[in-house]
Write a sequence for this structure.
């Protein structure tokens, strides 16, 4: 397999609203370092070293985030930043990005991955993606990565694994029986007990040819748009954008992965975290007395299970907690969030109610 045919499409158009007030439209989660030396986007780019040539890494984003990408990754080639015409969910966005790569190399094998996940074991990640590239070349497979569940999380999608394939590779691959959207906690617990369900990591591997074939069979409108872009049939950017606007806003899971019979799942054997909320982010904060977590010194009395994050560490304010449990308290220079830890998934709805200058 030629390394020059390996490509990556990093999805970096998200708004990161679940991390408000630290994450904002102009600087969402992928551009934050949070608890690390490097931003999540930088870590994603670095993770691809050794498996995808630097010149074959593309970032798909929206117009408001191009400057942020260049600010946190100044070494990145600006020509490799693809700007989606408008916000139309992941199926149109990925189809657009894949078509742009197809213009350059119709024999490309592509890993599509979010820009805001945390994976510590780069060697294991590289090995798995190499195996996925190899498998994608053999047939029109659409490969998705699955994560072994460690708890009954109701905010992740789940994948039910079927029979395993004899791939001859170090990594195992299974047929996908079905995708299950974010289940209630009780159902998630049943999935874990059954032992054949994985979390959906949102990382995909396929060839350009395999992606195009599956689109044609299961998503004809997307296939028509993909072919038009890949073959440079639109006479202007405006014409391309007009066609893009006509596409239905669907997720790639619903538009393609749940409909194709050529989907495989490869379960990862390394630590993975999408740091999807303040609950998961708290795992990277120091653990204090009574299960409280904070990035600063706090005083507590009869207070348990609280999360305190202060982004203004050069001008700290001491936090004292009395008789409260399971709060999330996040401070920025212009805002203060106080939330019930069990309702953090509703922060996205809360953001919709905020004044425009706090978005």
């Amino acid at each position: 397999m030629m390394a020059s045919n390996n490509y990556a499409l990093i999805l970096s158009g998200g708004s990161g609203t679940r991390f408000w007030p630290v994450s904002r439209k102009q600087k969402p989660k992928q551009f934050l370092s949070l608890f690390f030396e490097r931003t999540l986007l930088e870590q994603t780019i670095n993770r691809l070293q050794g498996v995808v040539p630097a010149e074959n890494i593309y970032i798909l984003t929206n117009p408001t985030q191009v400057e942020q990408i260049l600010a946190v990754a100044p070494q990145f080639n600006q020509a490799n930043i693809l700007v989606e015409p408008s916000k139309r969910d992941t199926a149109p966005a990925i189809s657009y990005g894949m078509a742009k790569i197809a213009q350059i190399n119709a024999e490309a094998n592509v890993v599509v991955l979010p820009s805001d996940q945390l994976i510590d074991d780069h060697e294991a990640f590289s090995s798995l993606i190499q195996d996925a590239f190899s498998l994608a070349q053999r047939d029109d497979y659409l490969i998705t990565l699955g994560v072994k569940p460690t708890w009954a999380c109701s905010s992740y999608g789940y994948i039910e694994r079927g029979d395993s394939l004899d791939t001859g590779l170090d990594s195992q691959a299974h047929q996908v029986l079905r995708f299950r959207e974010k289940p209630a906690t009780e159902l998630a617990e049943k999935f874990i007990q059954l032992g054949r369900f994985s979390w959906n990591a949102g990382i995909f591997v396929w060839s350009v040819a395999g992606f195009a074939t599956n689109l044609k069979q299961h998503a004809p409108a997307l296939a028509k748009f993909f072919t038009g872009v890949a073959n440079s049939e639109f006479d202007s950017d405006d014409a391309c954008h007009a066609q893009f606007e006509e596409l239905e806003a669907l997720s790639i899971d619903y538009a393609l992965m749940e409909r194709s019979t050529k989907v495989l799942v490869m379960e990862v054997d390394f630590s993975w975290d999408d740091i999807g909320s303040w609950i998961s982010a708290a795992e990277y904060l120091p653990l204090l007395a009574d299960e409280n977590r904070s990035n600063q010194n706090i005083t507590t009395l009869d207070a348990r299970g609280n999360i305190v994050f202060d982004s203004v560490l050069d001008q700290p304010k001491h936090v004292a907690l009395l008789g409260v449990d399971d709060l999330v308290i996040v401070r920025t220079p212009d805002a203060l969030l106080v939330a019930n830890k069990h309702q953090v998934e509703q922060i996205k709805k809360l953001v919709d109610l905020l004044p425009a200058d706090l978005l």
